[in-house]
Backbone:
């Protein structure tokens, strides 16, 4: 994830390839980002230019 003041760029990498999405930082779009992450069944999140890695337990 690449987080900016007005947008968040996210990339999903799977064996099927990469998918890029950009979301606004307004609440409604942050909720869409969360849904997108859940659909992708992401297990690990990382932010560019930051030392931040989050492991998600998606049971």
Residues:
């Amino acid at each position: 994830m690449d987080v900016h003041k007005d947008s968040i760029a996210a990339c999903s990498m799977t064996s099927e390839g990469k998918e890029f999405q950009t979301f606004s930082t307004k609440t409604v779009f942050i909720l869409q980002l969360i849904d997108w992450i859940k659909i992708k069944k992401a297990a690990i999140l990382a932010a560019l230019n930051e030392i931040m890695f989050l492991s998600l337990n998606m049971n």
Summary: Residues 29 and 38 are 14 Å apart (CA to CA). Strands lie at 2-3, 7-14, 17-24, 44-46, 53-55.
